[in-house]
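Query structure, 295 tokens:
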């Protein structure tokens, strides 16, 4: 006959034999094992122990490699953008021809962004604006001289004729003799172009003072002609004369400021008058008309 107290006696002898106690112990062991494994993994992650045996953690090397990779990606993007720009420019030249200036009758190629180095690009853009202001002032000056004649100025006929001559002659000479040389000077960095600019820009600065004064019968509706027009109640000529006076003053002062800056740049680059003479002797007029980098 089975002993009904066998299980009870066994539990008394070994209380851990109780199934509920065994289950609790098993759950506790599993929880401990899980915690220990997680702690070990976290410690590995924090201390670098998850690296292959025998190797030193390479976090710095990885960061440097990542930086180099990003730099290569940036350079590749810049090269691709440059290639697209060159392709678009080549397509434009093929479609419209290389000459692009002036827009209404292209006779030369003129592109400050494409041909002028970044360090000189802003100065060249401002000088171009000054040249455009000069042309605009000459146009307004011609109209003002016409009104001087219409409104009864005693020197109106002389001012109008001279003003008609100024517009095409000063426009063309200023472009060819000082604007284009400094454009080529910034583009090619040859001494000859700088000294041609210094010579003829100096003449233009003197002309700007002369035109600003607006002496009657000289072809300029500048300051003195403007004062006389206000005094004689020639209001249209007077108002136009104000624009002429301000225009000649603005472009003259602006060019004078850049004349000084370009003179400084010329010496910083090591250009000399002797080099300019040597370039003129070697290349002659070809130095002015050739766009290649050798001249």
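Result returned for the query:
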């Amino acid at each position: 006959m089975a002993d009904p107290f066998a299980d009870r006696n066994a539990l008394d002898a070994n209380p851990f034999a109780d199934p509920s106690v065994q289950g609790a112990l098993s759950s506790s062991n599993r929880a401990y094992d899980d915690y220990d494994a997680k702690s070990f993994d976290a410690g590995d992650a924090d201390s670098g122990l998850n690296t292959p045996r025998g190797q030193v953690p390479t976090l710095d090397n990885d960061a440097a490699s990542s930086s180099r990779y990003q730099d290569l990606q940036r350079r590749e993007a810049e090269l691709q953008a440059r290639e697209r720009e060159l392709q678009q420019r080549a397509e434009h030249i093929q479609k419209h021809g290389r000459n692009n200036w002036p827009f209404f009758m292209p006779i030369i190629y003129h592109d400050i962004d494409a041909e002028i180095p970044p360090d000189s690009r802003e100065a060249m853009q401002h000088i171009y604006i000054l040249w455009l202001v000069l042309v605009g002032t000459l146009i307004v000056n011609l109209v003002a001289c016409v009104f001087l004649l219409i409104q009864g100025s005693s020197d109106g006929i002389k001012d109008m004729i001279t003003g008609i001559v100024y517009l095409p002659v000063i426009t063309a000479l200023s472009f060819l003799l000082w604007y284009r040389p400094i454009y080529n000077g910034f583009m090619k960095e040859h001494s000859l172009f700088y000294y041609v600019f210094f010579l003829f820009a100096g003449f233009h600065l003197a002309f700007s003072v002369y035109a600003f004064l607006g002496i009657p019968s000289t072809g300029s509706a500048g300051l003195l002609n403007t004062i006389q027009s206000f005094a004689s109640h020639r209001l249209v000529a007077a108002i136009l004369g104000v624009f002429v006076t301000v225009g000649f003053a603005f472009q003259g002062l602006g060019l004078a400021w850049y004349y000084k800056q370009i003179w400084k740049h010329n010496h910083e680059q090591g250009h000399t008058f002797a080099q300019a003479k040597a370039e003129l002797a070697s290349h002659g007029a070809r130095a002015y008309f050739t766009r290649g980098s050798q001249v």
